[in-house]
Design a protein that fits this description.
Helix content of chain A: over 70%
Distance between the termini of chain A: 51 Å
Order of helices and strands of chain A: HHHHEEHHHHHHHHHHHHH
Shape of chain B: globular
Structural class of chain A: mainly alpha
CATH topology of chain A: MetI-like fold
Number of helices of chain B: 19
Order of helices and strands of chain B: HHHEHHEHEHEHHEEHHEHEHEEHHHHHEH
Number of strands of chain B: 11
CATH superfamily of the largest domain in chain B: Periplasmic binding protein-like II
Radius of gyration of chain B: 23 Å
Oligomer: heterodimer
Strand content of chain A: under 5%
Number of strands of chain A: 2
Structural class of chain B: alpha/beta
Number of domains of chain B: 2
Shape of chain A: flat
CATH architecture of chain A: Orthogonal Bundle
CATH class of chain A: Mainly Alpha
Largest interface: A-B, 40 and 39 residues
Largest sheet of chain A: 2 strands, antiparallel
Largest sheet of chain B: 8 strands, mixed
Strand order of the largest sheet of chain A: 1-2
Number of helices of chain A: 17
Radius of gyration of chain A: 26 Å
Helix content of chain B: 40-55%
CATH class of the largest domain in chain B: Alpha Beta
Chain lengths: 305, 417
């Protein structure tokens, strides 16, 4: 078909259309966007819809736009879901802060103080605990911290604590378990951030008469902010929604929102309540993360990748 | 020379369950159409919302009546049995069960025994969607505790009605404790695998005075060392018994009344536990706790002789783990054969000598003492309770419908949460 030839040649003489120029980023983000749609947006929306249904497991649940459920659960409820919420957020915050305090020196040591050939083995040790299921590891803590376990027996024999002292069943046990389980998620991003700091920058700081403390506070810490930022995201979100550690190491008064969601879904079969609690959790976490990102700036994550 | 039918020894041993999985249609046409409908519904908002409702178990299966006499008449023997049970709940010697081996030998039925049930609720959650879609769960016998989930299986018509004419040993040997229970009148759907008692256990190292009553769980001297069950049926039943009320005949007003004691006691409690309560008791975190008789019996034999189980003077709870045949079971005749086989003094004796809960066959006591020569088990009043102990044992309340169950939850959940 020779008549088509001029048509083919025609665009070459003009600039590509506006759509052609601007569409590639969208085409490229199609897979990522589809991923978000399938695994984030659809579950979120369907969770919201289930939360607005009423019924029971025998007769079924039907959509009645029951927005009142949120008020029922968080304002007038026999079961103090708001308390569980705040408690989970507190556990999340305490765990995050403690993880940073413990992880930063570890990451700093591996990044700066250790010979090159020791770095890999040490990082491997950080990851080693992941070779065992975290439920089993947490359960072992219940054994170690039990009243006739090595920790309390030793403390009691030294008369450092009284006869009635116990660790299991307290909030501290839960926070401790959370810190233990999430430590690697904090160490690794901080290590990655520290590792890429150019040694010459530190030399330059010293050449400009900074002492060790100033080098750390004015150079190293700001440059590793991206790692802390990523670590906080990983640790905080995981901890707030976790039902396992609090049920294995906790006791009376350590019931978390994660346990509440699990129990309302599995044991009580109140699918709408479970959905409402998880939707509320997602929204609250989303808001916290949004504010956090606004305050500290998202370029922090970009720096890391 | 063995006269056993030899299942082709040279053929490669392929797991029957795997074969079934490979050869069976995994997506019934109806389920495919339904998911296609749901997918199409994404296009229109209204159909999306319609597809979002969650069908109830009754609405899907409720009106589906079955002529059970015809059902049993039409069944053919298959030579297979798929048995789902709880962990550590059958006799086991180097991973092999003698009772199951004897059954296979006597009947030629090959048993695939899987200890997959960790708890009633999650197991119910895994089989319910299959049952609701009228698909096979892959099991011919499942074992569940009497309680809301068993009631739901019965009300949802998810169970095969047992043909007691093929189950003569049950009528002959079963203990009165497990016959005609309040949760399944006439044993229409269930026969008990094991019974257990919920009472009180305490550590005699720390508690020197005798423990006799539920009120001892609320003694301020034990503050921070009291364990309770996190199952709201257990704590509710204990609180009702303490008031002198039989849980099986209790009313919602009495439920409400009984929480006062639980709320007050709560500040002494270290934690509300699932099966792990025994670990806390053994590790001396708790000194006194709600407990299951079988756990304490086993703990006494395995290095914790200082733990003691007591039947509170107000009475104890008897619960039953029951063998059930789920609908769409592939080998229901094999399942009945096994139930009948189990209800003999010999076989239940072999199982009981290992499991140590409460034997549903009283005559197994003689088998254990004379043939297995294990007087510890045979003479235990926990495994073979006396008539007096049976008299002190009460059943759970049976929920009539979901609303009642929800009322119970609303009343007792604030205690454990």
């Amino acid at each position: 078909m020779t008549t088509d030839a001029p048509v083919l040649a025609k665009p070459a003489s003009r600039r590509p259309s506006w759509i052609r120029r601007h569409s590639p980023p969208y085409w490229l983000s199609l897979i990522g966007g589809g991923w978000m749609l399938a695994f984030f947006l659809i579950p979120l929306v369907s969770g919201l819809i289930v939360s607005l249904e009423t019924g029971n497991p025998l007769t079924g649940y039907h959509l009645t736009w029951n927005w009142a459920i949120y008020q029922q659960l968080f304002v007038h409820s026999d079961i103090p879901y708001t308390t569980f919420f705040l408690r989970s957020l507190y556990y999340g915050a305490a765990t995050t802060v403690l993880s940073i305090v413990i992880s930063y020196p570890m990451a700093y040591y591996i990044a700066f103080k250790v010979k090159e050939r020791w770095k890999s083995p040490l990082l491997f040790l950080v990851l080693l605990s992941f070779f065992v299921s975290f439920v089993i590891r947490t359960d072992m803590w219940a054994f170690i911290l039990s009243n006739q376990g090595i920790v309390i027996t030793a403390l009691r024999d030294l008369h450092l604590v009284g006869k009635n002292f116990h660790i299991l069943g307290t909030s501290n046990a839960v926070i401790g378990g959370d810190v233990y389980n999430n430590l690697a998620f904090m160490v690794l991003p901080i290590y990655v951030a520290l590792e890429r700091i150019d040694g010459r920058i530190l030399e330059a700081a010293r050449d400009l008469y900074s002492n060790g403390r100033q080098v750390f506070l004015r150079v190293v810490l700001p440059l590793s902010r991206a790692g802390i930022f990523a670590g906080v995201l990983l640790v905080f979100i995981t901890t707030v929604g976790d039902p396992v550690v609090s049920s294995l190491l906790g006791g009376v008064g350590t019931y978390t929102i994660g346990q509440a969601i699990q129990d309302s879904y599995l044991t009580n079969q109140q699918f709408n309540v479970a959905a409402a609690l998880s939707t509320a959790l997602m929204v609250v976490l989303g808001l916290i993360m949004f504010i956090y990102a606004k305050v500290f700036g998202t370029q922090n994550i970009e720096n890391l990748v | 020379m063995s006269t056993e039918p030899d299942p082709s020894p040279r053929a490669p041993q392929v797991d029957a369950a795997l074969l079934r999985g490979l050869t069976q249609r995994r997506f019934p046409r109806r389920a495919m159409l339904r998911s296609a409908g749901a997918g199409g519904g994404l296009l229109g908002m209204s159909s999306l919302l319609a597809a979002c409702g969650i069908a109830g178990s009754e609405s899907r299966e409720g009106s589906h009546k079955v002529d059970w006499a015809a059902y049993w008449r039409d069944q053919k023997r298959t030579g297979e049995l798929n048995f789902a049970n709880w962990p550590l709940y059958i006799d086991s010697e180097h991973g092999k069960s003698e009772s199951l081996a004897l059954f296979s030998k006597a009947s030629g039925i090959k048993v695939d025994y899987e200890a997959v049930i960790q708890n009633d609720a999650p197991f119910y959650a895994t089989i319910e969607p299959l049952l609701a879609a009228q698909e096979s769960t892959g099991y011919d016998i499942i074992v569940m505790t009497n309680g809301w989930y068993l009631t739901q299986l019965i009300n949802g018509n998810f169970l095969v009605e047992l043909d007691h004419s093929k189950l003569p040993n049950f009528a002959r040997y079963a203990s009165p404790l497990v016959k005609d229970p309040n949760y399944d009148p006439g044993n229409k759907f269930s026969v008990t695998w094991q019974t257990g008692f919920t009472g009180i256990a305490y550590n005699t190292k720390f508690i020197k005075r005798p423990i006799t009553s539920f009120n001892d769980l609320a003694d301020p001297a034990f503050k921070g060392h009291v364990g309770m069950m996190n199952d709201n049926t257990e704590i509710g039943s204990a609180a009702l018994l303490r008031m002198g009320i039989k849980p099986e005949n209790s009313t919602p007003e009495q439920w409400q009344e009984s929480t006062k004691w639980l709320e007050k006691q709560r500040e002494l409690v270290l934690g509300y536990y699932d099966q792990s309560y025994i670990q806390y008791l053994e590790n001396e975190d708790t000194w006194i706790t709600q407990a299951w008789s079988g756990d304490i019996f086993q703990a006494n034999l395995s290095g914790y002789p200082h733990l003691k189980y007591v039947v509170p003077k107000e009475g104890q709870i008897a619960w039953h783990d029951n063998m059930l045949i789920p609908r769409q079971a592939q080998n229901p005749l094999s399942a009945l054969d096994w139930m009948n086989f189990y209800y003999t003094p010999k076989i239940s004796g072999i199982v009981e000598d290992w499991v140590n809960y409460v034997c549903p066959v009283p005559m197994a006591q003689e088998y254990i003492s004379t043939v297995l020569k294990d007087p510890t088990v045979a003479n235990s009043s926990l495994v073979f309770p006396s008539a007096a102990i049976n008299q002190q044992s009460y059943e759970y309340y049976v929920y009539k419908d979901y609303d009642e169950y929800q009322t119970w939850n609303d009343i007792y959940n604030p205690i454990i949460e």
